[in-house]
Amino acid sequence: MRIVSGVGAMVLLVGALAGCGDGAPSSHATAVAAGGSVAAAPGSLRLTAPETLPGGYRAQSPAKVSTDHPADSQPAGYESFDGSMVAKYTADVGGVLTIGGAWGTITDPDAVAASAITAMQSPRGTWTVPLTDVDAQDPNDPQGRLKCGVSTEGLLVAAVCLWGDHNTTGVVSFPPWPEGMPATLEQADAADRTRHIRDTMTVSK
Question: What pTM was estimated for this model as a whole?
Fold first, then answer.
């Protein structure tokens, strides 16, 4: 299983972050969210794509943003799905950083993450380091989630992180490096960069 690569594939992944076709959130998930301590009110934040991101990344072009609402029921994990985006950044050291994200009133971040993880599956790739939970350190949501891993397909290896909270969710695919060569980004470093990227991209509505 691996992260899908490229803008076209990332668009599909954003569809998974939106939980398209997965139905409505469970009442149990809503109760858990309502009972927790959330610093920012669910649905009060959104994602944006600034010209630069922490870590030496510069936007290749304007982000592809959609604010289309679901035609039928809300996606799994959402009380209200409000928008999605795909953004590509060039790294100072070379390579491309790709980010796919979505936002709204999220009642079950784990359900949204599960949809995204399913969308990452590919028979041509493997997780050399499986996606595992790391400390989200989310300033807007103490119940926020963050998972990071390392994916290999063909001769390329890439660090991948996925975050989710009650306002936003996103997947970050870092610039890949050749298989067999020393890693250019360790899992812990990828997690730290993702936290900074998430916090920089998250703004008030």
Answer: 0.83
